[in-house]
Design a protein that fits this description.
Layout: H1 10-13, H2 39-42, E1 57-59, H3 60-83, H4 89-102, H5 116-133, H6 138-157, H7 163-169, H8 179-184, H9 186-193, H10 197-202, E2 205-209, H11 214-218, E3 223-225, E4 228-232, H12 236-263, H13 269-275, H14 298-305, H15 308-320, H16 325-338, H17 342-353, H18 360-366, H19 368-374, H20 389-394, H21 407-410, H22 413-422, H23 427-438, H24 442-453, H25 466-487, H26 517-520, E5 525-528, H27 529-533
Antiparallel strand pairs: 1-5, 2-4, 3-4
Helix pairs in contact: 3-4, 3-5, 3-6, 6-12, 23-24
């Protein structure tokens, strides 16, 4: 048969009978879309510990779209978790809104129009697909586990009176202590839980090995006796999260061992290679401001509206009259996204390089080709896309003599601090940024930098792209200038409308900036998800 119709090959089948982490049996039932009668046996709850990979067949398009939608959800969870205290009313409201918008399950009984079975199946498959993408490095695994834990914590809370049933179904039964033991330890339980004697009488307590409750022990929220920790029911989610973390961490480690074989499938390789740094926002490869920015404006714009990564590249180019290949790619595509024409780009780079040690002939021979190539005028004539934040953070880290990359990710704190000082940011504000950097929230650190340098409390959007940074900065600065102009006009003059959050132009949808053109050419039914996603379960 045709290559397009083939399922993942025999190399992938070698793991089909591997045991799943947390269980040795395999689920033999085949997926059939829309069959809500199997909601109970397959998906009795809107969350799971994902002990077994899904079965069935999906198209390459479905494979990618499922992964992208879950990635959007996990990135939203990260942003919400920084902006609001976990478990707070605002946090829960924001997260619930994202789950509803992206159609992921979170309640036992849903009022969504979409088939509940389909939502839970989507959750199941998309989780395993992202395992393949996020098992490739320790940083990726850590990020993926944290977001999945936060998602699980929220959905477990939404089970309410079904929590015990969920635990029993997953072999995680914790038996309450007897009344006699609770009365004997009443004062100690009251002190450890911070509850009154009246409340303690109504609380259910469990005793578990203290190693299963280290987070509660560390926070002095559990009473310890003879190696056992006494946990109130409302804290049991901590124990479940630890169990989920251990299972997921082990599964990702196993999956990473099988990744080379999985990536040998040429339909999936471009998808999996780029999902971990996929950009899920507006597409900036389409130039909408071509020729509207002059080369004389770039120095001023770099100071006012460039993100730190591009400001660093611009300053290095002006100082050294040269950038190495990684810097030329990152900054050149960014300038293309701002609206520089090919002619402007050639003039800009040539005029700067000849100020250094490059004569005009050498520039034309060694550098001009790459610039035309980025504009789709040479080679395969691919119209290259400006790099997103995730691509800059996760790919091609800078070496000595390089200036590309993300300053928040790739700069030592000792070097980052004076750089921020040179940008006229106060010591207290610098500490706010550095705290986010230390927590590995690099995009949120850039977002905080945006807020501080534009004197706003909250930007109202998630920052995912350097070109998005520039556009939003210009909106704010232009709005301020318009306001100043209007203040000198009569009251009856027409006032400008407040700027709106950035949206893709009409008729242009948000895109995923991944190198999937090769994969898209073979977008057919035929990826057997059971065989593929079982890869992480070798015997």
């Amino acid at each position: 048969g045709s290559r397009e119709g083939a399922v993942v090959g025999s190399a992938a089948r070698r793991w089909r009978e591997g045991a799943a982490v947390g269980g040795s049996c395999r689920l033999e039932m085949e997926f059939r879309p829309g069959s809500s009668t199997r909601l109970g046996p397959l998906y009795p709850f809107p969350l799971q510990l994902y002990p077994l990979p899904p079965q069935g067949t999906v198209s390459l398009h479905q494979f990618e779209s499922l992964a992208v939608e879950r990635l959007k959800l996990l990135k939203s969870i990260e942003t919400i978790g920084i902006s609001y205290a976990r478990g707070s009313e605002n946090y829960n409201k924001k997260l619930e809104g994202e789950l509803r918008k992206l159609k992921f399950p979170y309640r036992v009984y849903s009022d969504e129009k979409m088939d509940e079975y389909e939502m839970r199946r989507k959750d199941h498959i998309s989780h395993f697909i992202l395992r393949l993408a996020y098992c490739q490095s320790e940083d990726l695994r850590r990020w993926f586990i944290q977001q999945e834990l936060d998602l699980f914590r929220f959905r477990f809370g939404e089970l309410h009176d079904k929590q015990q049933e969920f635990l029993k179904k997953n072999g995680l039964e914790y038996h309450p202590i007897e009344l006699e033991e609770r009365e004997r330890l009443s004062s100690k339980l009251r002190n450890s839980s911070g509850q009154t004697a009246v409340v303690i009488e109504d609380l259910i307590f469990y005793k578990v090995p203290f190693t299963d409750a280290l987070e509660l022990v560390r926070a002095r929220k559990a009473y310890l006796e003879k190696g056992l920790a006494y946990i109130p029911h409302h804290e049991i989610v901590i124990i479940i999260l630890n169990e989920f973390r251990q299972r997921l961490s082990k599964s990702l480690a196993l999956t990473s061992r099988s990744l080379p074989v999985i990536q040998s499938d040429e339909r999936l390789q471009p998808l999996l290679s780029n999902l971990s740094c996929a950009y899920v926002g507006q597409d900036y490869s389409v130039q909408r401001n071509v020729g509207k920015i002059s080369l004389d404006q770039l120095d001023s714009l770099a100071t006012k509206s460039y993100p730190p990564c591009m400001r660093q590249l611009h300053n290095a180019l002006r100082d050294n009259h040269h950038l190495r290949h990684g810097g030329r790619m990152q900054y050149g595509l960014y300038l293309k996204g701002l609206g520089l024409t090919l002619e402007q780009a050639l003039l800009f780079w040539k005029s700067e390089f000849i100020k250094g040690k490059v004569d005009p002939d050498k520039f034309d021979k060694s550098y001009a080709y790459n610039i035309r190539h980025n504009f789709g005028k040479e080679g395969k004539r691919t119209d290259y896309t400006p790099f997103s934040c995730m691509k800059i953070i996760l790919s091609n880290p800078p070496g000595q003599g390089d200036y590309h990359g993300c300053p928040f990710r790739h700069s030592d704190l000792d070097l980052l601090k004076p750089k921020l000082q040179s940008y006229k940011i106060s010591p207290a504000e610098i500490n706010q940024i550095l705290d986010l950097v230390k927590g590995m929230h690099y995009q949120l650190a850039c977002q905080k930098y945006f807020e501080l340098t534009h004197n706003i409390d909250e930007i109202g959007f998630s920052l995912n792209h350097p070109n998005q940074y520039f556009i939003e900065s210009q909106k704010i600065l232009n709005s301020s200038r318009d306001t100043k102009k209007e203040s000198n006009q009569p009251e009856s003059s027409q006032r400008s409308q407040p700027s709106q959050p950035s949206q893709p132009p009409k008729g242009e949808s948000a895109s995923v900036s991944t190198a999937t053109s090769q994969a898209e050419s073979t977008d057919v039914e035929g990826i057997n998800i059971e065989e593929l996603l079982s890869e992480g379960y070798p015997e």
